[in-house]
Specification:
Layout: H1 84-96
Length: 97
């Protein structure tokens, strides 16, 4: 299911289609055709994108013209870094467990 990265509202586009460059979430109004909704978004990759052929996008929350955009399935956005507190607890468990 395709969902907005911001509010998790489902996107009602037709199967196989992608949101347009200026399309916004019907619930919260954020841009849908943005890096944070793309399956290629990866906060640990260079330019936060797993594609090696796309140009860098500065604002990941704003609509863009990326031809490689493909709406992520699930919670919106591709791979994201774990929350800081989760990383700290794993680090502590590594040496205390």
């Amino acid at each position: 299911m395709k969902k907005c990265h911001s509010c998790q509202e489902s996107w009602d586009g037709s199967p196989g289609s992608q949101p347009g460059r200026a399309e916004t979430c019907s619930s919260c109004g954020v841009d849908l055709h943005c890096c944070l909704n793309c399956k290629l978004y990866d906060s640990s990759a260079a330019n936060q994108c797993s594609s090696r052929t796309t140009e860098a996008v500065k604002n990941k929350e704003k609509g863009n013209y990326c031809d490689e955009f493909e709406f992520s399935q699930g919670r919106g956005g591709g791979k994201k870094s774990p929350p800081q507190d989760d990383m700290e607890s794993k680090w502590k468990n590594l040496f205390n467990g």
